[in-house]
Amino acid sequence: MARGALRQWRSSPGHLAGVLEAALDDAHMAIRALAVQVIAASLETTRRCADRLASLVDDPNLRTDAALALGRIGDQRAAETMFGLVREACTSPGVTEAAESLARHCPDPSPWIAAASEALATAPDSCPTDSLARRACPLAGAFNVVISLGPAAAPIVPDLLDLLSKPAPLPTSCRSWARRRAVTALAAIGPAAAAAVPGLERHASGTEFPGAAVLALAAITGDRAHAESYLDQFPNTVRTAGADLDLMEWLTDHGGLADRHAARLNAMLQRRRRIHPRALRLLWRHQGSDAADLLLETLPAYLTDDLYGPPACTLLTEMGTLAQPAVAALEAIVHRRTRIGMYIGDEDEELRADERLTEAATAALAQLALE
């Protein structure tokens, strides 16, 4: 009943946290385990019960769920347990999110690097060919750790290169996804991954993940020519490929878009029903106030999306006073009594997505009120 209430009503954490925390002392292990899982379903409930959850990370029966819950909110008391989960390539739902949150704000990256390195070193050469395996790749936690650490993860470059040196697997294998993720990790490490340049140059001219390889080359070398020449291969159509957006974002951060690439961005925006929210942010950064009307027309449709809602709130915040017409849409999100339906396929994930969206919309409203 408590889990159902948390999934439906936004005020539930305040009413149920105490009851759920008391259930952690129940005589029956099954009740205690279920209480941890229900608390973990909600970020707000986890925050309210954080001290009690922290006392459970040494309990062999409850430590995983308790650590994942604390990890999602960035509570470093879960770090020791999470090191082990990453090292063991645990595929429990939530490992990647918790590892990313903890690693991003860790006081010492060394244990994370050691855990990720061991996961990569002990991974089997082949993975299941079931396409659903991508969602539970045993290396996903390690990659999120490396990407979160960025340049601090430089010691793990040899492990990433070793993974990329192996023959390309079947496209349906999660290992194909892992190889692409390894390239993304090299890009996050940046110049310290210079040893990867020769291999990335080969991948940039290949067919497996050329766009990701080009982005990594640009991030490592700082040379805009890598990104520009890749984009110049394609006509200015309505392509909204992720690689295009990744490269244009990198160019925007490193000197801005050339006119010909701005033209590509404008082409992406021609079909209003296919506008990608990331393209809208690029447009704002490139055109500023001249893009305000299009953004105000388009962004509200994304505000209730689990993936793009929080970035849309952030973009409205960046617009400052120009975003005032969107205040009503933000208020409609914040003042709801019930959760917004996200339709992710996992009701607990949908609950947390609503909490994150509400937090983002609340922060946007607070900032816009100061403008």
Can you describe this structure?
The chain is an all-alpha fold. Among the domains are: 1-73; 293-371. It has helices at 2-8, 12-23, 29-41, 43-48, 50-54, 63-72, 79-87, 95-104, 110-121, 140-149, 157-165, 174-189, 197-204, 210-221, 224-231, 242-253, 259-268, 277-287, 292-298, 309-319, 327-334, 347-370. The longest helix is centred in the last third of the chain and has 24 residues, at 347-370. It starts with a helix and ends with a helix. 43% of the residues are buried. The model is unreliable at 129-133 (pLDDT under 50).
Summarize the structure.
The chain is mostly helical and 371 residues long.
Any descriptors?
ARM-type_fold; 22 helices; ARM-like; 371 residues; flat; PBS lyase; mainly alpha
